[in-house]
Amino acid sequence: MQHDLVKAADPGHAAISDVAENKEQTFAARVFASQPFWVTIALIALVVIMAINEPSFGTVENAANVTRNFAPIGIMAMGMTVVIITGGIDLSVGSVMGLVAIVAGLFLTWHYPWYLAFAMGMIAGIACGAVNGFFVAYVGMPSFVVTLGMLSIARSLAVVFSANQMLYQFGPDAPIVRAIGQAKWPLRAPAGWAPQWMPELSSHFWVMVGLALIVGYVFNSKAWGRHLFAIGGNEQAARLTGVPVDWIKFQAYVFSAFTASLASLLLLGYNGSAINAMGQGYELRVIAATVIGGANLMGGAGTAFGAFIGSAFLEVIRNALLMAGIDSNWQGAFVGAFIILAVLLGMQTGGKAIVAAILERLLPKKHR
Amino acid sequence: MALLEVRNVSKSFGAIHAVNDISWSVEPGEVVGLMGDNGAGKSTLVKLIAGNFPPTDGEVLVDGEVCHFHKPIQARAKGIEVVYQDLALADNLTAAQNVFLGRELNKGFWPFRVLNKQAMVDRSAKLFDELKSETRPRDLVRKMSGGQRQAVAIARTRLSNAKLVLMDEPTAAISVRQVAEVLELIRRLKHQGVAVILISHRMPDVFAVSDRIIVMRRGTKVADKATTSTSPEEITGLITGAIRAA
């Protein structure tokens, strides 16, 4: 009855969509609205400008260098994205790197085979993630507090285990460890087939690419990925619909620690030594990369591509400033400004409203 | 046989008797309005049926079978679905993703077992169509009107072919037009033979769709009347206690 009344009062029968302005988004519209897309544009612009103005920037050597430098951050950004999508945060990744490097380094100095050393490092890292995951998912503590605690614990353990010494006498398997960390592909002549213009990309970069593809696949095509987003969007709703919320959150922290361990072992190989300070301050760089790439700290949004592009963007800014001869002390200011700018522009409504308001102030077209 | 029968059910939390010796039943395809003031025991009764906790005394029967639920998932297995007041939707996901949340359709074989997105979109579109709702499966819930959100939450209950749907204040805090939409959705459910228990404070809504109205006051049932044989004035009196019982 009531329904008929409403209809009678509305002879035009306007469809809900005409009134509510919620047209189904086209693919192009979704792309244009996405933060990673605009960061990619900014990144390309930055690279083009630098390549034109600074000859040493556009070299294949620099390309290989930059891609290797941001790869560990990119690898960890994949794990961080998973955690951030659930609405959490993992501050412990930098310290976990240090602990993993020391544990693996110790086993190498005791002349164990490299795979055993790497496995022990990995176990140590994943154990940290499991502790994080247990307290966050099953005990219900805030992720900030738990992982802040782990940041302190893992670093401290790394210092204790290493007796505050640098580990570098790796025994018989040292060449293999180094080969893993320093491997490149494709190789140029005489060792390989790659033409002169192609950068020799490091193993770090390829690991990151592989991981990004896997994470992207899981986000898009697996129920597990779908559940991550649901937990970040409305944890209670996910619980009520039968999603194993606690188990998935636990796995998210374990995965984050796994990525930190992976990055740590690659860096250990590249350096050919292990120091307990490895990864110090990396957690903030990783979070910055993830956020620039469009992950929402409130949970429910994030992409593998965003994590990749965010970490690339951070490193290219750093590298560009260096190449342009700007005092390296300015790096922090630039990076910080870009974090705020990226998130501001990525805000669905707020960002655009603020930008519009600023433009209105600066260029008052008409008086109201 | 009644679809749902509540037999001499009581529930107490410590010294507080939230629900006291209540009996009633719901037939298939029946819409029952459950009314009462705040603290009358409506929510406790609903939670008993939805399986949040078992009763202290008495029995809940589904299709003549005694059921003691400890978790909502057990009630769902028996064909009882709940549309929560906050709808329990993840608004960063699309309508179709929400409808299938927790019971996604997959295709292929492990480890390449992937979500069957097209099938989920198609099935959701069909459900919205059955509900005569103008909700599109690929729209984000965040961008939807209150009525469309209700449609998503209700479509979710249709997915499992629920026999009984409990709706907690579905028409609170939405616009007049959306209320009409939600009431139409309830009629659709009834039309498909689904029983609906509608918990609401809004007298006109309950009178518009319900076959029967049950009034609770201080944990007891004070009235159980066919909607046609009562009036909003009488129900108001029963809720407030001005009329002791009917």
TrEMBL record, chain A:
Keyword terms of this UniProt record: Cell inner membrane, Cell membrane, Membrane, Transmembrane, Transmembrane helix, Transport
Main location: membrane
UniProt keyword Ribonucleoprotein, yes or no: no
Superkingdom in the source lineage: Bacteria
Entry GO terms, CC: plasma membrane
GO molecular function, one term: transmembrane transporter activity
Membrane topology: Multi-pass membrane protein
Localization terms from the record: Cell membrane
Protein name: ABC transporter permease
Species for this entry: Bradyrhizobium cytisi
UniProtKB/TrEMBL annotation, chain B:
Role description: Involved in beta-(1-->2)glucan export. Transmembrane domains (TMD) form a pore in the inner membrane and the ATP-binding domain (NBD) is responsible for energy generation.
Gene Ontology terms, MF aspect: ATP binding; ATP hydrolysis activity
Key words, A-Z: ATP-binding, Nucleotide-binding
Residue ranges of domain ABC transporter in the record: 4-243
Pfam families: ABC_tran
Keyword ATP-binding belongs to the record: yes
Cell division in keyword set: no
Lineage top rank: taxon: Bacteria
InterPro entries: AAA+_ATPase (IPR003593), ABC_carbohydrate_import_ATPase (IPR050107), ABC_transporter-like_ATP-bd (IPR003439), P-loop_NTPase (IPR027417)
Protein name: Sugar ABC transporter ATP-binding protein
